[in-house]
Design brief:
Layout (H helix, E strand, L loop, with lengths): L19 H10 L5 E3 L2 H10 L5 E6 L18 E5 L3 H14 L5 E7 L5 H12 L5 E7 L4 H11 L3 E4 L3 H5 L1 H22 L9
Parallel strand pairs: 1-2, 2-3, 4-5, 4-6
């Protein structure tokens, strides 16, 4: 029970990857018994400094591709845990969007540039979109480019939006939601003025 036989030390980088190494060093100095994180970058920072204390991944993508583990059957090293890496997830995301927006034909995908799992997510989403005849607008951005990405969406007029789950984007959840609502309204108005295709909103 926390506070009796368990102490949890929380550290939050607030989307700043440059802080991860210092936070990892700080926790190592505190001699913790186990590390846990859902951030690929955080786990990489901890692993590069430590090869003995156990590391638990709570929901990272592509642990093999990012060399966090050797394989699913025999992970090796001191890292284990749960992964979200699955081509089925990309298909299910697009399938859910089609249920919400029946005329779905164009989807914007907001992904983080230089994030280790990004290339895998893009490929999986592209592989899933082809058979479903969905056109993708891939937007690779850093944190300071999120607003510019939404301006591009207004011009491309997507029917829906998928946002990659990353530590950086999690820190900007409210801003992304507010921008999505604003872009949805702009796209809806533009499509009503076109009189070419049915009015749909950015989901």
């Amino acid at each position: 029970m926390e506070g009796q036989n368990l102490i949890i030390l929380y550290r939050w980088a607030a989307g700043r990857k440059d802080r991860l190494v210092d936070l990892a060093k700080e926790l190592l100095q505190l001699k913790v018994d186990l590390f846990a994180s859902n951030s690929t970058e955080a786990i990489l920072a901890i692993r590069d400094l430590n090869n003995t204390t156990p590391i638990v991944m709570t929901s990272v993508s592509d642990p093999i591709g990012n060399k966090l583990v050797a394989s699913f059957a025999r992970p090796g090293g001191n890292t284990t845990g749960v992964t979200l890496s699955s081509t089925d997830l990309a298909t299910k995301r697009l399938g859910l969007l089609k249920d919400v927006v029946p005329n779905l034909s164009r989807v914007a995908v907001l992904v983080e540039r230089d994030h280790p799992p990004t290339a895998t997510m893009i490929k999986e989403t592209q592989d899933a979109a082809g058979p479903m005849q969905i056109e993708l607008q891939i937007l690779e951005v850093r944190a300071d480019q999120i607003r510019d990405a939404f301006k591009s969406m207004e011009r491309a007029r997507p029917d829906a939006l998928i946002v990659q789950q990353t530590t950086t984007f999690n820190a900007y959840t409210k801003e992304i939601a507010d921008l999505a609502r604003g872009t949805r309204n702009q796209i809806s108005v533009s499509k009503k003025q076109d009189f070419v295709r049915p009015s749909t909103s950015l989901t």
